[in-house]
Amino acid sequence: MRATHALRSTTPRAVRRCAPLSAGRASAAVSQKEQAPATPETQAALDLNPPRGTRDFYPEELRVRNWLFGQWRATAAAHGFEEYDSPVLESEALYVRKAGEEVTQQLYNFEDKGGRRVALRPEMTPSLARMVMARKNALPLPVKWFSVPQCWRYERTTRGRRREHYQWNMDIWGVPGVTAEAEVLAAVVGFFERVGIDSADVGIKINSREVLAELLAKTCGVDQADGARFAATCVLVDKLEKVPAAKLYDDFAALDVSPDAVDALVEKLGEGGSIEALEALLGADSPALANLREVYALAEAYGYADWLVFDASVVRGLAYYTGVVFEAFDRSGELRAICGGGRYDKLLESFGGDALPAVGFGFGDAVVMELLEMKGLVPDLDSSVDAVLFALASGDGDNDAALARDAAGVAATLRKLGLRVDLVLEPKKPKWAFKHADRKNAPLALMLAPDEWADGRALVVKDLGTGDQANVPLDELPAWLEARA
C-alpha cells in the first residue's frame, strides 16, 4: 500500500453557506480626481453579496458541489456516456424561438462589442444540437454524451430556483425507439439510488407529447402537423398545472382555441389518470400509448418501474419535445420538479438541419441539493491532508530561517512520494501546529526540531490519534509510513 492511502482521513466537518463579492479593477482612463484615494466620506460601502440569484462557493461548499458533480459523472460513466462542454456564451439566435417559451423571455442577452447578439446559455440542449450538426456526418451513432454546464436565466428566485445554476445533462442521439428513454431514465434512477434516495422519496412522472397531440386534435382542433401552433399550445398546456384555465383563455384564443375547448381539454387530462383510462379516450390502437407501454415494460426489466407515475398533464415547457416526456418530483410535495426531459427528434430541423432522433434530460443542482438536505443525505466532507509539516520556532532568526528552508525541502520530498502535505509557512510553536493539524484533519504532525534534525536529519513524528511520538530519520520515513499502514 502506498503511504498516502494510509494517511487519509474522513473526519466530518460542517457545511456553511456564505456570500462575498470581489471588486473589479479600476479603468486606467479615469481622471486624476477619480484616482484620488477614497475616503469614508467618498466611498460607498462595498456590497459583499454576489448578484441576486447567484452564489459564491467557499471551500466547504465547493467540496459539496464537487461531490455532487462526482456522483453525476460516476452515474454517466456507469452508463457509458462521454463528457463534452461548450462556451457559456452563445449566439442569441440559438435560443430565440416563437412558441412563447419562458426560456426566450429569461435570457441574459446583449450585444457584444462586435455588434453581435449573444446570450449566456440558459440550457445546454441547443448548444449540443449545434455541436452535433457541426460533425453530424463524422459522428458514429448513437451519440451518448453528458455535461455539467453552468446555465443562466433571468427569472424570479425561489426555493431551488436561481438565476445561475449548474445542470447535469445526458443525451442520446440516433436511437428512434424508446430504448433510449428507458436508458436515460435508468441513469436518473441510478443517481438517486447512488446518493441514498429511493422511490418512496421521489417519483418520475411520465407522459408523451404524442398523447397530448391526440388529445389536442380531439378537443381543440390543434393538429401536430401545424408545428408552430402545436408547439405554442403545448407551452400553454404546461402552464395549466400552475395557472387556472380561465387565466389562459386569452392566450389560447390567440391560437384559435376557444374557452370551451380549453375546458374540454382540462377535463380529458383529468380523466387520463392512467394508460388504461387514456385507452378509453384515444383507442387501444393509439401509437402514443403503445410507446408508453413499451417504456413501462423496459422499466420493469431495468427494475425501476416503481419510480414511474403516469400523468397525462405532464407536458414540459420546451416546445421542441416530440415524444415521451418526464420529470422527477419530490413525493412530499415540498419542492418543484427536480429534473425533466424527453424526446426531441426535430430539434435539428429548427436550426436548418436534418431531423435526428434524440432523447435527454436536464438535472439542476439547486433543487436536488434542497432534497438531499431535507433527507439528511449531504455528506460531511473535510479538507484533510496526510500530514502537517512545520519547523519548530526557536526565536533565533537565522536558525529558524535555515530550518524553514529544510522544511520546504522535506515537504517537496514527501509530496513526490504522493503525500498531501500542508507546510506551515511561518515559524510556529507545537501547540499552534497541533491545533492546525486537527483543523486540517491530519493524522500526523511532522516537526523539524533543531536538535533532532541536526542529529541524523530526524523528524519528530506525532500520531495525533494516539498521541504516540517518534523520531524518524527522513530517509526511513517512507518505510515507517508503510509499516504504520
Automatic annotation (TrEMBL):
Q: Highest taxon of the source?
A: Eukaryota
Region (Disordered): which ranges? 25-53
Q: What EC identifiers does the entry list?
A: 6.1.1.21
Pfam families tied to this protein: HGTP_anticodon, tRNA-synt_His
Query: Which keywords appear in this protein's UniProt record, sorted alphabetically?
Result: Nucleotide-binding
* Family listed: Belongs to the class-II aminoacyl-tRNA synthetase family.
What the entry lists under PANTHER family is as follows: HISTIDINE--TRNA LIGASE, MITOCHONDRIAL-RELATED, HISTIDYL-TRNA SYNTHETASE
Under the heading HAMAP family, the entry gives: His_tRNA_synth
- Its name, as the record gives it, is histidine--tRNA ligase
Task: Report the source organism.
Answer: Aureococcus anophagefferens (Harmful bloom alga)
